[in-house]
Amino acid sequence: MAxxxxxxxxxGRAFAPLVRPYLNWxxxxxxxxxxxxxxxxxxxxxxxxxxxxxxxxxxxxVYYAVAPSSEQWRRLVPLLRATVGSTITNFxxxxxxxxxxxxxxxxxxxxxxxxxxxxxAGGDVQRGRYALAALARLRTLVDESRVTxxxxxxxxGEVLRTFELALAxxxxxxxxxxxxxxxxxxxxxxxxxxxxxxxxxxxxREWDRICQLGSFxxxxxxRRTPAVTNALAEALYRTVILPSEQADDPEQSFVVFRAxxxxxxxxxxxxxxxxxxxxxxxxxxLAARAEMPPNRKLAEHLDGMAAxxxxxxxxxxxxxxxxxxxxxxxxxxxxxxPLRNFGDEIEMLRTEKGPPSLERARAxxxxxxQVNALDxxxxxxxxxxxxxxxxxxxxxxxxxxxxxxEQMLEAAGGHTVPKNWIEWxxxxxxAPLAESQEFARRAASDWRVHDHLRTEADVRxxxxxxxRVSPVAQDRLFDTLPYLVQWVQADSAWPExxxxxxxxxxxxxxxxxxxxxxxxxxxxxxxQLLYGMLQLGQDAAEYTRLLNDIGDVLPLEGGTADFEGLxxxxxxxxxxxxxxxxxxxxLWARIVAALSPVRRRLTQGELALVNDLGLAFGxxxxxxxxxxxxxxxxxxxxxxxxxxxxxxxxxxxxGERAKRVLGKLYPGIRIQLVHDTVxxxxxxxxxxxxxxxxxxxxxxxxxxxxxxxRLRPARAPTLYPPGKGSSxxxxxxxxxxxxxRILGRDAENFRRQPPxxx
Length: 758
Description:
By secondary structure, the chain is mostly helical. Among the domains are: 9-145, no CATH class; 224-324, no CATH class; 342-412; 537-631, no CATH class; 644-740, Rossmann fold, CATH 3.40.50. It is 57% helix and 5% strand. A 4-stranded antiparallel β-sheet has the order 1-2-4-3. A hairpin with a 2-residue loop joins strand 1 and strand 2 (60-66). Helix 8 (190-203) packs across helix 11 (226-246). The two termini are 33 Å apart. 42% of the residues are buried. Residues 1-6, 333-339 and 745-758 have low confidence and may be disordered.
């Protein structure tokens, strides 16, 4: 980390007594006095750039920011802007001339501080308290950021939280690192590691890699969570059945499913997840048709689920229903006995009105264990509680029954399953971390957003529950927050205007945690929520608050590992309308300040990207680009010289920026941009002929991605960047062609290596 020039301790100790007579701290409460001393101590803290002097003047707290050199001032300004910017105080950044008629300012002038800054929160009591706390915290954060900490052991819960945060932030390298840690340190068994691997590939839509896993056959036979069942069924549909959908041939879909999927599916299609994804739902519809007799009840259930899917997914689903379950169904030649499955057992327990029986409770435990969903646990636990004490004891004396019952209690976090997120939040303070994480993971997979948030009052109540969580439970909420974020993002209507208060509550809690401890994965989740809220549109005041909040928690000095996230944050603000350009400009200044200490370690590609993005903020050159040394320039021609790289994204400015940066670095590459929302002859030609096709799937039309998938030659690379920004496009190309050194250190030590085999 680059050193910061500061006042020496000797300078500060000599200067502080000169200003004390004019600070007017007499009568200040002891708790506030402690913070004032901490802030004044910046004068003698060599780790702090410049210093801050708090002064009570006419009953109002006024702060002076001073620095003995322009270098220190340049470093101090972004720190103050991020901590007590214009939404808290009237600090804006420029120097002001001090008044020689003011006794304190006279001391500043006489000691060489002719200019600095004078700022206050005014008479607003709440802002004044925040400014005092924030400035005291700023000194602590600066000090702690410069302390080399001993590596501490990581608990399994912490690593799982990092993994889930990385998935929610679409940060693949961080997710892979967490998974590798769990594997190398033997924190999880092979089955649970396989489950996490499946979820990783599913998050990045790598369906073929799921089907290629060596553990895939055993995963289809073992007991699974609904989330894993969804991912496995989705993978089979996308890799085996999708060509029949693209050919609009429902009959062929049924034939292929019977021949190529069903014989190898084990118990995969025994029970449909509570919230099937579109591909998984269509696969379960094919399985319902394959039953003897066809399972019309499941087909009707899936038809109801499909109402929440995107329209392009529903169209072929309806074709499958029309073909496989015609309205005038032929009568069977002989009476078929209905088969009861595990789902039927649970439904019978749910609807039974008479006295409970020991036999039915046993059957329910077995069924709930196999279904492995919260709804089943809730029904069976409630039914078991109705048994007489003698019957319950007899039931649980059996080792299998007792084990199943205890696992359900652990997943539920008590004798009853929370009915909603609000009940779960109320239990956080007392529930063990492992149980809290397990329940949140299941709820995010099993519950549908609109089943729980039907009204404006439902949304407001959940948002307020998050905001009012007790201090004791705040860390526990942060540990499980990734699942809540994944839950709202999995909603087909994401981002939805009616859920704006919930997005804001989740964002605010992330900002709170990031202000205490920076974590790039958590910052990535905050970026995803910010994207959703900006897409919905904000008024000037809320827009300013959102940008200032995330700017305030950015690292005081970023590292090269933070580069891509910072670029995506900046590009996010450029891609959306800004009701307050000044707020966007301030955030950009904060991003530049975070990168400034490591600017000499950035590659030419990274510098080119920063400078190109700087043009959108009216800056001709953010960082100078040095002439590349011989060591930095790859020997020989680029692996893409003379090749065609197609980039598909609906965000035109992102594609244009990636094209400009690539073109500057490697003029020999032919770059073609595609922004179509429907098929076209040019798109189809590029899909067939382009040497590399980059598909920004998070900013794409489904119809176009299907055309690209269908027409790409088998050996021609199609790359799917995890983010929406140009940095993500350049990074994915750099992963596939490390010799290009676009955004990495070098080919051997590249921080975003191509995905490891998991």
